[in-house]
């Protein structure tokens, strides 16, 4: 099975700081790591590879320092890594990101399965996987905790809030890995050292089939962040007491006001 | 006036009668000086009236030094000169810090300061407990995990300002002289800390062992052939025995900081090696460690690599959970205090001490979590609840056997 895992470099969770003047996230190349949900996506891919013949390709979009997250993937057991590194890709929103990833996946000949993390620590829209599936015209499934192959069908186990769903779907497909159920493995010393010697392939706009800059980066992003601020809490909390019935009535009358 | 700061020790202040040693003391009053002037008043009064004093920081010590034995407690958790916590001397790479500042606050301040700088600096002393105050770390001569490379407190502190028992402000650069003053009841007010450049890369390589003997052989070989180069350094080598691992594991579910995968039940010891430096230098050291691990027949799956500060902290957090778990258990069982051994011996073969300690535990039928620097070695042996039959006299006897 040909698997692609999309990963991202994000600021470390304990190092997330906002620039209150600028209203933007303060980014520093020293305090970055792989997006935690993407590690779960990698683990899902590796569990497939543990059971059957499969190749795993990791791709990311970002500066040269994003090589580190690709090496993280290689050390965990991925086979190839691609870094989408071009100024033309900078400032991408959900639409431009998913377009760039989709173009890359098409350029690489397509995959049977594309796995993404459920959300990113910095943007946290959680929309790129769905947008990517739409761009690729692949089916999309969220919160998948295990996948096997039955002929041309992917047998998936989906982690819903209260139930586990098992179903089959034809390849190809984009999925997001279920959160907090796939404990990611830790790279061994040998595989980590081997990953440092593996070549990371750089891709730029020129490598894409669609070369018009209007689809990429800031130009291809209709979303504009005008201002980011911490909402000011104007109302004061009020503590109400009474029976559950009385409290329910109070809430209803408060909402009606 | 001293009376303005003095608070009678009511039930509300019960938490200040104990620290992480779980020993429990008693006191008549407590005060929380916020600045030097208040502290001078307090020191002068206590000296004049011959009142016993106990100085407290973050109450994170396990030696019981912050547990009062009557008199007045001087708690420094608010000693931050009204929020003005840290001054940086950029030229000399020194951070001047008030003694009530916690390690966490210092880390955050330095992080904010250098977030956009090309080179960032940090204070390398890390006794793993982030709520420890700088004053407490210095006063107790704490030994940080990475002291192996960055040095102990005396090497990481340029000078220290104190308020003596007579209420005089003095500055010390010699650690021994400072210790004498502290022993007499002086209080640290400020410290000038030597900062080190944040390493380009950090790797934590952990080795999991099915038996202690292989772990000891690994440590002996590592000490004999410690890989060195100019671009990277091994800054920490921490050992944990099976009881330490069991206790660290027991914190899963209580602490969201325990994020390392669970071990196989048959894992009996763990050693982690932390390396700071540039990529090339770290990789060279890691190659040597791989050779060592092959020589000791450590299966590939039992070697874990964590890359980056955040990742490396996953293993440091687990190491920190070991004493935390034991302290929690001691607290739950309402035992008199934690009983432990703290032994340092600079040996060519660390196994000499670790093996002797293991033999004693077996001979005496004692359960003990052994953890700490495995290379010097400089380790703790925390006796688990259920071994309360151990008297101080017996513990001292065991210690003598090991020295």
SSE map:
The complex is a heterodimer of chains A (257) and B (403).
Chain A: E1 2-6, E2 9-11, E3 18-19, E4 24-25, E5 32-34, H1 36-51, E6 55-61, H2 67-76, E7 80-84, H3 94-107, E8 113-116, H4 128-136, E9 139-150, E10 153-159, E11 164-170, E12 173-177, H5 189-197, E13 201-203, H6 244-256
Parallel strand pairs in A: 1-6, 1-8, 6-7, 7-13, 8-12, 9-12
Antiparallel strand pairs in A: 2-5, 3-4, 9-10, 10-11
Helix pairs in contact in A: 2-5, 3-4
Chain B: H1 2-5, E1 7-8, E2 29-31, H2 36-48, E3 53-56, E4 72-75, E5 86-89, E6 94-98, H3 103-114, E7 121-122, H4 134-139, H5 147-150, H6 153-156, E8 157-163, E9 169-172, H7 175-184, E10 187-194, E11 196-197, E12 201-209, H8 212-224, E13 232-241, H9 242-249, E14 269-277, H10 279-295, E15 303-307, H11 309-332, E16 340-344, H12 351-363, E17 368-373, E18 378-383, H13 392-402
Parallel strand pairs in B: 2-4, 3-4
Antiparallel strand pairs in B: 1-2, 5-6, 6-10, 7-11, 8-9, 8-10, 12-14, 12-15, 13-14, 13-17, 16-18, 17-18
Helix pairs in contact in B: 9-11
- The value of Rg of chain A in angstroms is 21 Å
Largest interface: A-B, 26 and 28 residues
Task: Summarize the helix and strand pattern of chain A as letters.
Answer: EEEEEHEHEHEHEEEEHEH
Q: Alpha-carbon distance between the termini of chain B?
A: 49 Å
Strand content of chain A: 25-35%
Q: Determine Rg of chain B (CA atoms, Å).
A: 22 Å
Description:
The complex is a heterodimer of chains A (257) and B (403). Chain A has 257 residues and is of the alpha/beta class. Helices cover 28% and strands 25% of the residues of chain A. Chain A has a nine-stranded mixed beta sheet, sandwiched between helices. Chain A has a two-stranded antiparallel ribbon with strand order 2-5. In chain A, β10 and β11 form a beta hairpin. In chain A, α2 crosses α5 and α3 crosses α4. In chain A, 38% of the residues are buried. Chain B is 34% helix and 24% strand. Classes of the chains: A alpha/beta (257), B alpha+beta (403). At the A-B interface, α2 and α5 of A face α10, β15 and α11 of B.
